[in-house]
Amino acid sequence: MRIDRVWAMPNAQTFLIKPIAVLLREEMDIGLWIDSFAGENSPAIIRNDLNPQVVNVEYHLDAIDFLRNFGDGSIDGVLLDPPYSPRQVSECYKGFGRKATQEDTLGVWRSWVRDEVTRITHLGSKVISFGWNSCGIGKERGFRIDRILLVCHGQTHNDTIVTVETKERQVKCLF
Fold it and tell me: How confident is the model at residue 108 (pLDDT cuts 50, 70, 90)?
């Protein structure tokens, strides 16, 4: 497993952070890449963002509903850059006039997203996850961590942790 640590200015638009942009160019191979939490600058081919004000996306669906549009084993790569904390979920929703529910702010939806990503990816698919931890999709779902990028933003900001995983084995449905 490769682990790198770099420093970069923070940016709410994750994909504009220079070392993250470099990692994406290195890791995103050809094939069908999707992003269920795209924001404005996702390099994925098919992009979704719940916020109706985000214009550079094809869909404005809940992440789970977006992922359910894809067949079993049909996706080559997934970018996962959800809000990193319950507070961020709540702030994001308030930003476009939607009230976050208790379900939205509990961690269970992250498990549902991971289950759907497991279903739609095939052996050899990559998932690149962003957050404040390196959990990614997980070994129990058949994924192997290949690379971790720690992006330090200084003492007053949490690092952005990027986890690159490859699906190496099929697992029974967890959902």
Answer: confident
- Position 139: which residue type? K
Task: Tell me whether strands 143-152 and 160-167 are parallel, antiparallel or unpaired.
Answer: antiparallel
* C-alpha to C-alpha distance for 90 and 127, rounded to whole angstroms: 25
Strand ranges inside the chain, DSSP E: 2-7, 33-35, 46-47, 75-80, 121-131, 143-152, 160-167
Place of tokens 């996962």: 80
| Site of tokens 């959902």 | 175
Q: What is the DSSP string of 14-61?
A: GGGSHHHHHHHHHH--SS-EEETT--S----SEEB-S-TT--S-SB--
* pLDDT tens digits, one per residue of 41-92: 999 999 999 888 899 999 999 899 999 999 999 999 999 999 875 555 555 5
Alpha carbon distances (Å) from 96 to 50, 51, 54, 119, 152: 9, 6, 10, 30, 29
Q: Which CATH architecture has domain 2-167?
A: 3-Layer(aba) Sandwich (3.40)
pTM for this one? 0.90
Distance CA 95, CA 71 (A): 32
Angle at 27 between CA 22 and CA 32, to 5 degrees: 120
